[in-house]
Amino acid sequence: MSRQQRDALDTLLRSAPRPETPPTPDAQRDGFAAAMTRPVPDGVVTRRTVLGGRPALELEPGTASGRGRLLYLHGGGYVVGSPDTHAGLVGELALRAGLRAVSVDYRLAPEHPFPAAVDDGLAAYRELLATGSDPRDIVVAGDSAGGGLSLATLLAAREAGLPQPAAAVVFSPWTDLTLSGDSIRSKEASDPIFTEADIRAYADLYVGAGDRALPLASPLFGDLSGLPPLLVQVGANEVLLDDAVRLAGRAGADDVEVTLEVGPGLPHVFQHHHGRLEEADAALDRAARFLTARLGAGHPARP
Question: Is the pTM of this model over 0.90?
Answer without folding.
Answer: yes
